[in-house]
From TrEMBL:
Region span, Disordered: 1-32
An example Gene Ontology CC term for this record: nucleus
Superkingdom of origin: Eukaryota
Protein's name in the database: HTH_Tnp_Tc3_2 domain-containing protein
Gene Ontology molecular functions: nucleic acid binding
Pfam families: HTH_Tnp_Tc3_2_like
């Protein structure tokens, strides 16, 4: 025996030769772990998708453990959505009750919405198609909005002039302006207008917004300026399939009845 072995034995005869194995070797190399963290950062990908994209010969649980142990990935439990106040529930229930017999009417409904953050957009769509997207100012008056109707909504109406369309818009201030009401009356001609406020059941318009956001920021995409973001928004709108809009529209009767069953409360949509 070497002097080193003898010395180790003399130091602790009872534990000599009983040291346990450090365990099974890790399946992931440090490089693989860094790839996983980079793939998850600023992304909505799940563990299974990350595993498949990186072609890792491990289970999704291994990917999850890697992300959990990383100091660069923050995990937070989402806050619950705020509860509706009594008057919100009453308004939602009234809306649902008034439209519980709708079926084909939802397919003819044209949703008009305005929203966004650093870039504001106007969109209009139905189960039959979509209007041209408009980038709008963050502060917009009724005259600006009427220009949008002239340049974006009327061409859409011309393409679907043989259909009995129904308009749906929120309670934005521009929608309550006298000039807007007069213009929308001219645009719609003999069509019906359904004016519904923020208390209505969560519309499929919210789902469309979600689809656009996921498309714009997929794979952790970041933008250096507003112009790049505007281009990405327009491209995402162009790739939005009519089949997707039709599927969302066809879900409206289920949403309506779920609101009724829950007395105007939150739905699963």
């Amino acid at each position: 025996r070497s002097p080193k072995v003898i010395n180790n034995y003399l130091k602790d005869p009872k534990t000599y030769g009983t040291r346990k194995s450090p365990g099974r070797p890790k399946k992931l190399s440090p490089r693989d772990e860094r790839k996983i963290v980079r793939a998850a950062a600023h992304s909505t990908k799940g563990c299974r998708q990350i595993k498949n994209d990186l072609r890792l010969n491990v289970g999704k649980t291994t990917v999850w453990r890697t992300l959990k142990s990383s100091p660069y990935i923050a995990r937070e439990i989402m806050e619950k959505i705020p509860s509706f106040k009594p008057h919100h529930k009453i308004a939602r229930l009234e809306f649902a009750t008034d439209h519980m017999t709708w079926n084909n009417e939802w397919s003819n409904m044209v949703a008009l919405t305005i929203g966004g953050g650093s870039v504001m957009i106007w969109e209009a769509f139905s189960s039959n198609g979509k209007a041209e997207l408009a980038i709008v100012p963050t502060r917009m008056n009724s005259n600006m909005y009427i220009d949008i109707l002239e340049n974006h909504l009327k061409p859409y109406m011309d393409r679907h002039k043989h259909e009995k369309l129904i308009f749906q818009q929120d309670n934005a201030s521009v929608h309550a302006n006298d000039k807007f009401l007069l213009e929308i009356e001219i645009v719609r001609n003999r069509h019906n207008v359904l004016a519904s406020g923020f208390t209505k059941p969560k519309s499929h318009t919210k789902n469309v917004w979600g689809i656009l956001v996921r498309k714009i920021y997929e794979n952790g995409k970041q933008f250096e300026n507003i112009r790049e973001l505007e281009v990405a928004i327009r491209n995402a709108w162009q790739t939005l399939l009519v089949q997707t809009l039709k599927k969302l529209t066809e879900s409206m009767p289920k949403r309506i009845f779920q609101v009724i069953n829950r007395n105007g409360g939150h739905t699963d949509y």
